[in-house]
TrEMBL record, chain B:
<dbReference type="InterPro" id="IPR050366">
    <property type="entry name" value="BP-dependent_transpt_permease"/>
</dbReference>
<feature type="transmembrane region" description="Helical">
    <location>
        <begin position="88"/>
        <end position="110"/>
    </location>
</feature>
<comment type="similarity">
    <text>Belongs to the binding-protein-dependent transport system permease family.</text>
</comment>
<keyword id="KW-0472">Membrane</keyword>
<protein>
    <submittedName>
        <fullName>ABC transporter permease</fullName>
    </submittedName>
</protein>
<keyword id="KW-0812">Transmembrane</keyword>
<keyword id="KW-0813">Transport</keyword>
<dbReference type="InterPro" id="IPR000515">
    <property type="entry name" value="MetI-like"/>
</dbReference>
<feature type="transmembrane region" description="Helical">
    <location>
        <begin position="117"/>
        <end position="139"/>
    </location>
</feature>
<feature type="transmembrane region" description="Helical">
    <location>
        <begin position="145"/>
        <end position="164"/>
    </location>
</feature>
<dbReference type="Pfam" id="PF00528">
    <property type="entry name" value="BPD_transp_1"/>
</dbReference>
<keyword id="KW-0653">Protein transport</keyword>
<feature type="transmembrane region" description="Helical">
    <location>
        <begin position="211"/>
        <end position="229"/>
    </location>
</feature>
<feature type="domain" description="ABC transmembrane type-1">
    <location>
        <begin position="82"/>
        <end position="270"/>
    </location>
</feature>
<feature type="transmembrane region" description="Helical">
    <location>
        <begin position="21"/>
        <end position="44"/>
    </location>
</feature>
<feature type="transmembrane region" description="Helical">
    <location>
        <begin position="249"/>
        <end position="270"/>
    </location>
</feature>
<keyword id="KW-1133">Transmembrane helix</keyword>
Length: 531, 282
C-alpha cells in the first residue's frame, strides 16, 4: 500500500514538474529573439524622412499615433488619443490624449509633442510630408488636448493619423539631438543621423541597433504603458531574395519570411512551416515620365495610352507571381473607396498600333527603362520589365532595361528622371486620398514632380485637384462617387499604370502566433508571440 | 597490293609532336564554341529573348535544359551566350595585349625615368584586386557589356606590360641585339626587328589562358548586375537569374557548364601552347 502511495507521490511530483515546465517553456521561448527574414530596403529611420515598407514595420513598433488602424484594416481605434471629434465641415479636429501614455524614457506624452511632431512632419518636406498638407495651425490649450486646424475640409484626416509616419515623437529628446520642427526644418533639421541609432516614441518596442543591409533589432520598451509585447527581442535580418528567405525559414534561422514569392513558396514543403496566401492592397505599377531628360520620343498621352494597351496584364500576373494576384484598375487599390466597378486595364494591340500610327511612330522607338533590381511582394521588378519588354516589342517599341540599386533609382527618378519604370506601393492607412496626393497629377505631388521633370512638362490635372477637394469635404456615398471620378481621371492620365496587385505570402514557423498583414503597417510586431 | 600499301601508309601515320592532348582538346572546345556562335541563328528552333514554352519547365525532350522564369529556352540562351562572351574576351585580351605590350616594351627597352613611371603605374593598378577594380570602374561608367569590357581592359593591360618588360629586359642584352646596335641600327628598328620577335611566346600563352579568365570576370560582373543587362543571354546574367530560382537548378546549369568548358579549354590550350612554344619550360 505504501508502495502505491510512493508511486502516486512520484507521479504527482513528475506531473507537477512537467506542469511547471509547461508554464516555464513558453516564457523561455518568448525570451529568445524572433528573427524575421526580409529585404530591409530602408531609406531612413527618421519618422519624417522614412518612406518604405520596412519603415512602416519599424515606425509602427516604436512609435504610436493618436489613433491606430484596427484589425479589419478599415476602421480606426484609439491609441495615444482616447477620444477625438471634428467640427461639422471637417476643418478642425480635437484630440484628448491618454493621461497614462508615456514615452520610452518614462516622460509623459503631451500636447506639445503632438504639435512638434506634426509641424516637423509638414515642414521637413520629406516623402511623407503630404500627410500634413492643409494643416494651418495646431493649438494646445492644455497638456492633454490638441486642436488641429485645416485650411479646407479633410474627412480623411483621422484615417491619416493611423499612418506610421504620423507617430508621436518625444520632442524634447529629439530636439536636443538636432531635430527641428520650425518653418526652416527642411534645411535646419540635423536629426536624421541620431534617428538611425535611437527611437523616441511610446511604442511597444525601442530601436536596439540598426546596421544597414544587415539587421534591424528591436527590444521591448520597458516603460511601455500598454500591454507589454510577448516577445522581448525581434530582429529583422537582411535577406535580399525569396529563395534565401525560404532557406532561412526552412533551416530554422528565421521564424518569419516576409517576401517569399509564389514560385518559391511552391518549393517549400515542411510540416514545421505555415504558408498562407492572402490578398493585399500592395501593388506594382509602371510609370511614364514625359519630362524625363532621357526621352528620345515625347511620351505624350497617345503614346502612353498605346504603351499601356500593349501590356499583357494577365500574362504579367502569370509570369511574375504565378497567377497569384489580381488586376488593378487605377492607382487607388482594389477595395479602397471609389474603386468599385472601375474598368480593368485592357490589352488591345490593334488600338495600340493605331495610336502609334496616329503619331507616325508605327516603326517603333526605344525607351529607357531604369528599374530597381529588387524583389517586392514576390515580384522581381527586373523580371517584370523583361516581360513588358516582350509585350512592347509587339508594337516595335524597345525597352532599354537598366537595373540599378533601389537607392540609385530614388535619385534618378527625381533627376534626370526615368522615362519608363516599374515601382511598388503599399498603403499607409485606409483612405483613397493618399493615392491621389501621391500619384495624382496635383501640383507638387510626388509623381507630378517626377513625371513632369520637376515642371518641364505640364501634367497638372485641375479636375483631380477640384474633385479631391470635394471628396475631402464629402460624406456618405458621395465620398466613393467622387473618388471613383478621380480614379477615372488618374487612369486617363496614363502616368501610373498598375500591373499587378500580388497576393501576399505569409510564411512562418508553426510555433509563431499573431502573424497578420496590416494595411498600414505590414506586420504588427507587438502582436507576435511564440506558442 | 594497293590496299596493302594504303594500310601500311595509315599505320605509319604519326600523331604530330605538337598535337598534345591539352592543345587539341582545348582547341576543339574553343573552336566548337566559335562555330556555335557563328551559326546558331540558322539552326536553333527558339529565340533567345522570347517565349519558347511554359515557364519553369524542367529539362525534357522539347527543352533539353528546360525553360526559365519567362518561358525562354535555357539551352538556346546558353548557346547564344557565346556571342556575347567571346567577342568581349577577344576585345579585352586584344586591347590589353596592344596597350600592355607597347608600354612594357618601351619601359623595358628605354629604361630610366620612363620605365619607373610606367612600372609604378602598373604596380598601382595591379595592387587592386581585379574584380574590385573592375567593379569600381563599371559602377562609375554604368552597367552594360561595353562598359564592363572597358573596365576589364583597365584591369588586364598591366599584366602584359609587366610580362613584356621582363621579356625585353632578358632579350636586349643578347649578342645579336648588341651586334645590331653596334652596326648602327636605330633604336626602334632594334626593338621591333631584333627584340620583340623573341618576346611573343609567353604573351601568346598568357593571352590564351587569360581568355577564360576574362569570360569568367565578365560573367561575374553580369552576375552582380554590372555587366550585361536583361534580356541579354549572357552567362553571368543567366546564372544570376538562376540563383534567385535556387530550386529550379536547370536555369543556372547551362551557363555554368558553358563557363566551365571555356575556362578549362582555354587553360588546356594555353598549357599546350606553352609546351609547344617553349619546350624548355615543360
Amino acid at each position: 500500500m505504501e508502495g502505491i502511495f510512493r508511486t502516486a507521490a512520484r507521479a504527482a511530483a513528475a506531473w507537477a514538474a512537467l506542469g511547471a515546465m509547461g508554464v516555464i517553456l513558453p516564457a523561455a521561448a518568448q525570451d529568445r529573439p524572433l528573427v524575421i527574414a526580409r529585404n530591409l530596403e530602408i531609406n531612413s529611420l527618421d519618422p519624417h524622412r522614412a518612406f518604405c515598407d520596412t519603415c512602416q514595420i519599424y515606425l509602427s513598433a516604436t512609435y504610436q499615433g493618436l489613433v491606430k488602424l484596427a484589425a479589419d484594416d478599415r476602421s480606426v481605434e484609439p491609441s495615444l488619443a482616447t477620444e477625438w471629434s471634428a467640427n461639422e465641415n471637417q476643418t478642425e479636429f480635437t484630440f484628448k490624449l491618454d493621461p497614462k501614455a508615456v514615452f520610452s524614457d518614462g516622460s509623459p506624452v503631451e500636447a506639445k509633442d503632438v504639435k512638434w511632431t506634426f509641424e516637423r512632419l509638414k515642414n521637413l518636406q520629406g516623402d511623407p510630408s503630404f500627410m500634413m498638407k492643409g494643416v494651418t495651425a495646431i493649438e494646445t490649450p492644455d497638456d492633454k488636448t490638441v486642436i488641429v486646424k485645416m485650411e479646407s475640409p479633410n474627412s480623411e484626416f483621422i484615417g491619416i493619423l493611423a499612418a506610421p509616419y504620423t507617430g508621436i515623437i518625444n520632442s524634447e529628446v529629439a530636439s536636443s539631438n538636432g531635430a527641428s520642427a520650425g518653418d526652416d526644418a527642411a534645411t535646419a533639421d540635423k536629426g536624421e543621423t541620431w534617428f538611425l541609432a535611437n527611437s523616441a516614441g511610446s511604442g511597444p518596442y525601442v530601436l536596439d541597433t540598426y546596421r544597414p543591409d544587415d539587421e534591424l533589432r528591436f527590444r521591448a520598451n520597458d516603460k511601455f504603458w500598454g500591454t507589454a509585447p510577448a516577445i522581448k527581442e525581434i530582429v529583422i535580418d537582411q535577406s535580399a531574395d525569396a529563395v534565401s528567405q525560404a532557406q532561412m525559414l526552412q533551416s530554422g534561422a528565421a521564424d518569419i519570411a516576409m517576401q517569399v514569392d509564389p514560385d518559391t513558396a511552391e518549393t517549400i514543403a515542411s510540416p514545421d512551416l505555415t504558408i498562407e496566401t492572402v490578398p493585399s492592397y500592395n501593388y506594382i505599377y509602371v510609370s511614364f515620365s514625359p519630362g524625363a531628360e532621357g526621352n528620345q520620343t515625347p511620351l505624350d498621352l497617345e503614346v502612353r495610352q498605346a504603351l499601356a494597351y500593349a501590356i499583357d496584364y494577365q500574362g504579367a500576373i502569370d509570369f511574375t507571381v504565378g497567377g497569384k494576384g489580381a488586376l488593378q484598375a487605377s492607382p487607388i487599390p482594389n477595395g479602397f473607396p471609389g474603386t468599385e466597378d472601375l474598368p480593368m486595364p485592357e490589352e488591345n494591340l490593334d488600338k495600340a498600333k493605331e495610336l502609334l500610327a496616329s503619331k507616325n511612330l508605327q516603326d517603333g522607338f526605344t525607351v529607357d527603362a531604369t528599374v530597381a533590381s529588387i524583389n517586392v511582394y514576390g515580384v522581381d521588378l527586373a523580371l517584370l520589365m523583361q516581360k513588358l519588354q516582350q509585350d512592347l516589342s509587339r508594337i516595335n517599341v524597345t525597352l532599354n532595361i537598366q537595373p540599378v540599386a533601389s537607392a540609385v533609382w530614388r535619385q534618378q527618378i527625381a533627376n534626370p528622371g526615368i522615362p519608363f519604370s516599374a515601382r511598388f506601393y503599399a498603403p499607409d492607412y485606409y483612405g483613397s486620398a493618399q493615392y491621389v496626393q501621391f500619384f495624382g497629377m496635383l501640383p507638387g505631388s510626388w509623381w507630378e514632380r517626377n513625371a513632369s521633370g520637376q515642371g518641364k512638362v505640364d501634367l497638372v490635372n485641375q479636375k483631380e485637384v477640384d474633385l479631391l477637394q470635394q471628396a475631402l469635404a464629402a460624406s456618405g456615398d458621395d465620398v466613393a462617387r467622387l473618388y471613383r471620378e478621380i480614379a477615372l481621371e488618374m487612369i486617363n492620365d496614363r502616368i501610373i499604370v498598375p500591373v499587378v496587385s500580388p497576393n501576399l505570402i505569409l510564411a512562418y514557423r508553426n510555433e509563431v502566433a499573431g502573424v497578420r498583414y496590416s494595411a498600414c503597417c505590414n506586420l504588427p510586431l507587438a502582436e507576435l508571440s511564440i506558442k | 597490293m594497293s590496299i596493302l600499301s594504303s594500310r601500311s601508309a595509315s599505320s605509319r601515320f604519326v600523331w604530330p609532336e605538337w598535337a598534345t592532348l591539352p592543345l587539341v582538346g582545348g582547341g576543339v572546345v574553343i573552336l566548337a564554341w566559335i562555330i556555335i556562335g557563328l551559326t546558331i541563328p540558322w539552326w536553333t528552333p527558339y529565340d533567345p529573348t522570347n517565349l519558347a514554352g511554359m515557364r519553369f519547365q524542367p529539362p525534357g525532350a522539347e527543352h533539353w535544359l528546360g525553360t526559365d522564369a519567362l518561358g525562354r529556352d535555357v539551352l538556346t540562351r546558353t548557346l547564344y551566350g557565346v556571342r556575347h562572351s567571346f567577342p568581349i574576351a577577344v576585345f579585352v585580351i586584344g586591347c590589353a595585349v596592344v596597350i600592355g605590350c607597347t608600354l612594357g616594351a618601351i619601359a623595358g627597352y628605354v629604361g630610366g625615368w620612363l620605365d619607373s613611371v610606367i612600372m609604378r603605374f602598373v604596380d598601382i593598378t595591379l595592387s587592386f584586386p581585379p574584380i574590385l577594380l573592375a567593379m569600381a570602374v563599371t559602377a562609375s561608367l554604368g552597367p552594360g557589356l561595353g562598359n564592363a569590357a572597358i573596365a576589364m581592359v583597365i584591369v588586364w593591360w598591366p599584366i602584359y606590360a609587366r610580362l613584356m618588360r621582363a621579356q625585353v629586359l632578358s632579350v636586349r642584352s643578347r649578342e645579336h641585339v648588341e651586334a645590331a646596335v653596334a652596326s648602327g641600327a636605330s633604336r626602334s628598328r632594334v626593338l621591333i626587328k631584333h627584340i620583340l620577335p623573341l618576346c611573343w611566346s609567353p604573351i601568346i600563352v598568357n593571352a590564351t589562358m587569360d581568355f577564360g579568365q576574362v569570360v569568367l570576370l565578365a560573367a561575374s560582373l553580369s552576375f552582380i548586375g554590372l555587366g550585361a543587362v536583361p534580356p541579354t543571354p549572357e552567362w553571368g546574367q543567366m546564372i544570376s537569374e538562376g540563383a534567385i530560382q535556387f530550386y529550379r537548378w536547370w536555369i543556372a546549369l547551362g551557363p555554368g557548364l558553358a563557363i566551365l568548358s571555356v575556362v578549362l579549354a582555354s587553360n588546356f590550350l594555353g598549357d599546350g601552347l606553352r609546351d609547344y612554344l617553349d619546350p624548355r619550360a615543360s
